[in-house]
Amino acid sequence: MIQQLIMTPKSVFSIEIEEEEESSPFSFMNEQRLRKAVSDVSSEIGKYRKELEAITKIDEVKQAECECCGLVEDCTPDYIVEVKDSYSDKWVCGLCSEAVKERLIHGPRITMEEAVSSHKDFCQKFNNTTRLNPKLSLTCTMRDIVKKKSENRDSKTLVTPKLGRTISCVPRINANTK
């Protein structure tokens, strides 16, 4: 029994060949066929090497943290670069990216960087108040609603005139109204 090592670009094969009589004409032919088979296998491996390297690059996953809300997602490096290019070199998660798009569409005219910054401030305010103390957040929200209503009421009274009395100064209720 003869052990023969055959080296390819990525691996080493160890092949055991049974010794045959030297006088046999087939031993030389078998060895040649075996070498040709190994050569064919190594050439096939070479063909698929580039594809295998591309697949291993695809499988690389990195964790990216949203700069607005702090959510961590597993993403490929190419996706991280694509998102950063779209949002002023800041990585934002899917939910925050939708909020930024809404702010751009429905808000006043602002740049992408301003929209991301504005949403980041909103997320930080939310994380610092609502998550830490929900009751305080509810109180602050109610105060803001009352302020807005008060401002709206004040602005309406300045624009629209008050109702004046037209017929009589005597208040009465007419029960026969239809």
Explained architecture:
The protein is 56% helix and 11% strand. The chain has 178 residues and is mainly alpha-helical. It is rod-shaped. The chain starts with a strand and ends in a 19-residue tail after the last helix. The model has no long low-confidence stretch (mean pLDDT 77).
Keywords:
mainly alpha, 5 helices, two-stranded antiparallel sheet
**Form type:** rod-shaped
- Can you count the beta strands? 4
**Structural class from helices and strands?**
mainly alpha
Count of alpha and pi helical runs: 5
Order of helices and strands: EEHEEHHHH
Percentage of residues in helical conformation: 55-70%
Report mean pLDDT, rounded to a whole number. 77
Distance between the termini: 118 Å
* Beta-strand share of residues: 5-15%
Unreliable parts: none
For the report, how would you describe the main beta sheet? 2 strands, antiparallel
Q: Biggest sheet, strands in spatial order?
A: 1-2
Radius of gyration: 39 Å
Helices, strands, pairings?
Layout: E1 2-7, E2 12-17, H1 26-58, E3 62-65, E4 72-75, H2 77-86, H3 94-106, H4 112-129, H5 134-159
Antiparallel strand pairs: 1-2, 3-4
Helix pairs in contact: 3-4
Structure described in brief:
By secondary structure, this protein is mainly alpha-helical. The protein has helices spanning 26-58, 77-86, 94-106, 112-129, 134-159, and strands spanning 2-7, 12-17, 62-65, 72-75.
